[in-house]
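Deliverable D5.2: sample structural annotation.
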Amino acid sequence: MKLAAAFLSAILVTVSAFPSLVSAEILAMMNYESKTPDSIKAMKLTGKTVREEGIAIMDVDPNSGNFGKILMNIPLPADLVAHHIFYDRTQTKAYVTALGKGELRVFNLNEFPYRLKVISVPKCQMGEDVIFSEDNKTWYLTCMNSANVYVGDTATDKISALISIPGTYPHGALVMTDIDRVLVTSTISGDLKTPDERITVIEASTNKVLGHHKVSNKKSPSGEAPVELVRVPGSGAPQALITNMFGAALWTATWNAGKKDFDVAEAYNFAKDKAGVPLEMYFNKSGDRLYVTTANPGMFHIFDSAGGMAKLKLIKTIPTAGGAHHVGLTKDGRYAIVQNAFINLPGMSDGSIHVVDLKTNTTVRTIDTLKKRGLNPNSLVLLPEWNDLGGH
């Protein structure tokens, strides 16, 4: 850690001494883990095989001389199975979830070197997503294999409540304070053998579970595994967009003020595009573009969303690599940085990073830095100076 701190300090001094260099970099943060032994063998990689985890800071600017270089590395426990990195709404704090331990890590993005604090969440098995209320006062940690959601205070990171949702597998979440609701997807059991088909509705002010909605047109059990949620910007009635992982579809949950509940409907199906396992969704600042990743075989989809979710128009599908997952969007709207790895699953853990130019809708460069070391980036966010939250 001391060496990493000294290295980062040297970088900051160099950048400040040469202001012209500042515009020639886009820094991304990604947590990584070792590929499976079978993957390493298939890639014919040699060298150490000790399991490795960490957080890397990398330059992903396609025009930078440091493109693809790791500028800072923070080791993590090799048995943590760090999963995702989430920013609070001010982008001053970062939260790292874990599949392997009942721990949530948090650090201040304004402190160098980063000082990771461990928050004990012992009743959380497979920590998935951390999402924040619109006022940024409250965070919610979903725990997929323990059927519960932790609630915490963003300012102090003290736990304030534990919401039990028996019979579910909490993964994605969305706070809609204006209608006093929290939505949580029920995805799949920890052994990946029992996919669900529902979203759960919670009263935000009381943490009371109000009910569930099936988000599938198939006979139950459909096994469609709804996974992530994002609020649709500019919609008349409050509306959430949902990715159905094994249903290869997008669904909407639209607020019905008359019955004080949601109406659900399918919005788009990827089957005709020969794409499966949709995961993450992002909107541009004006709300007229929707970006969706599908992990199998690995694609980045660009939609015209100006007409609403019922009239989505696919503009282009860009092949990336197996496991297309998280995306870092630059504030200027120029680039989408696509991370290609999905929890080390066979065929969906390529380990590369694709840089997509959103002006030309083409991949302009690819990064194999981690891949060549036998590592997978499990998630990716740009550092706050460059990062557009993408509607999250």
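Annotation notes: Residues 2-17 form the longest helix (16 residues). Residues 1-22 have pLDDT under 50 and may be disordered.
The annotation will be released with the project's public dataset once the embargo ends.
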